[in-house]
Protein 1
Amino acid sequence: MSRLVLEEVHKTYGRGRNAVEAVRGVSLTVEPGTTLGLIGESGSGKSTLGRICLGAEPIDRGRLLAGGEDFARFGRERLAEFRRKTSIVLQEPELALNPRRTLGQSVTEPLEVHFPRLAPAERRERAEHAMELAHLDPGLWDRYPRELSGGQQQRAGIARAVVTEPEFVVLDEPTASLDLSVRGRILDTMRELQDRLGLSYLLITHDMATVSALAERVVVLYKGVAVETGEWRRVRRDPEHEYTRTLLSAVLTVRRHGRG
Ligand SMILES: Nc1ncnc2c1ncn2[C@@H]1O[C@H](COP(=O)(O)OP(=O)(O)OP(=O)(O)O)[C@@H](O)[C@H]1O
Ligand SMILES: [Mg+2]
């Protein structure tokens, strides 16, 4: 995908005494075919930034640029193209899947939205291909979400996210609801998809192992401010900002004392 850039973005929810400054002057760049990790404590503005990168959350100040073009100036066609080329994988696959639609219907839905003129057979073929890419058996086509395992549901969310052949995908805590054994395999699938489809990812996560598995670079977010940006290997080894140090050592402490 063309490079995706945020320039000095600000976003406040609410007004007056209830105002929450969720994002305060954040700049970031996601290079084509690469993964940018977005880390920070709960409430630091990660999901808000994810939605902003998709043009799904209006901003107060700053710019979203795709391929050097200002999102705010997109005409109807360019906007439709941008929507086709971007998507999101959510933490809770249940939220991404309609409980009343079969797996096949859920995976096909984005094609109905973005490619309404495709013939039904062609749609089915593309949806089955996306399922195969996500390592999900197309034989599950007629199953409902409650008839799938957590891992299968997450793969369905991934198949849905890639069925339109996007170039940029936001992964918002993509493995947080999965147990460790499934997590590793889902990460492998996401990396494989990145290679095969040339995807760029914005990876939102609390899990440093997930960052290590996917991200080349990271942005560390603290109360809506990007306090540190850089190559993940460097940040992990030699964090510059006090908050990054706290964040990394908190994770290590939890590991040591808690879940092993
Ligand atoms: N639609 C909204 N209306 C009002 N406030 C919101 C809205 N969405 C988010 N916020 C607030 O903005 C701040 C950032 O929220 P955000 O969801 O981006 O955090 P996050 O880093 O994704 O947190 P988590 O790790 O818990 O998912 C929080 O204070 C949150 O309460
Ligand atoms: Mg979030």
Protein 2
Amino acid sequence: MIICSCNVLSDQDVRSAIKAGQTCSISQVYGCLGCSAKCGRCKRTIRRIMDEALCSVGAAPYNGRMQSSKS
Ligand code: FES
């Protein structure tokens, strides 16, 4: 499903970028996919996908900074 109409990014594109481990912020997701935020409407969805991906590996949800469940 397309989640960013400005850059024509799918949820799968975002998940792949996160899985590649090169993204610890929303802006890095765009960068990893060779684009940048334009209108910003998709940021909330990207954040949700990042939270889901991090929760699935046991890490704390994304809140603007990469966090680990380890302390
Ligand atoms: S919908 Fe993603 S930047 Fe506009």
